[in-house]
C-alpha cells in the first residue's frame, strides 16, 4: 500500500508497506528497523517483539520523542507489561499497533514535523 504524503519534514519517509516489507525512501526492508525523521537503523533490535526490553528503549532514547510507535507486524502483539511500564516511566508511552497502522501514523506525524520514533517489525 502506497502511503506517501507531500512533505519535506525529514530525511526518511515511509513510502509503502506490505506484509513482510517496508519501503523507506524507495528502499525495501524486510528486517526490524527504527526510523525517525533524521535516522534509520537496523542495529540492536531483537528478532521479535517479545524480546524487546527496557534496556532497548533506553538505548533508543525514547524520552526524546513526542510519539514512540511500535509496529508489531501484520497482527497486533503486545510487548510485556514491564516494557510498557518502562516506557511510561521514561515519559514516552509506547503506542503499540500493527506495522501498517504504525507506518501510516508515522507518515502523518512526520508530515507535521513531529518528533516521532517508529520501531517497526515487517
Extract low-pLDDT stretches. Answer: none
Total of DSSP H or I helical runs spanning 4+ residues: 3
How much of the polypeptide forms β-strand, as a percent range? Answer: 25-35%
Count the domains.
Answer: 1
Q: What is the averaged pLDDT score?
A: 92
Structure description:
The protein is globular and about 35 Å long. The protein has 122 residues and is α/β, with parallel strands linked by helices. Strand 1 and strand 2 form a beta hairpin. The two termini are 13 Å apart. It has helices at 54-59, 81-89, 99-111; strands at 14-18, 21-24, 27-29, 33-35, 40-41, 67-71, 94-97, 116-120. It is built from three helices and eight strands; from the N terminus they run E-E-E-E-E-H-E-H-E-H-E. The chain has a single domain (14-120), classed as Hypothetical Protein Mth938, Chain: A.
Amino acid at each position: 500500500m502506497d502511503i506517501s504524503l507531500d512533505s519535506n519534514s525529514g530525511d526518511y519517509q515511509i513510502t509503502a508497506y506490505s506484509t513482510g516489507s517496508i519501503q523507506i525512501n524507495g528502499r525495501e526492508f524486510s528486517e526490524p528497523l527504527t526510523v525517525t525523521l533524521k535516522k534509520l537503523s537496523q542495529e540492536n533490535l531483537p528478532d521479535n517483539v517479545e524480546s524487546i526490553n527496557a534496556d532497548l528503549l533506553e538505548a533508543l532514547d525514547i524520552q526524546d520523542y513526542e510519539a514512540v510507535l511500535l509496529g508489531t507486524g501484520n497482527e497486533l502483539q503486545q510487548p510485556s507489561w514491564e516494557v510498557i511500564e518502562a516506557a511510561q516511566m521514561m515519559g514516552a508511552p509506547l503506542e503499540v499497533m500493527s506495522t501498517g497502522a504504525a507506518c501510516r501514523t508515522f507518515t502523518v506525524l512526520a508530515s507535521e514535523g513531529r518528533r516521532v520514533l517508529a520501531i517497526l517489525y515487517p
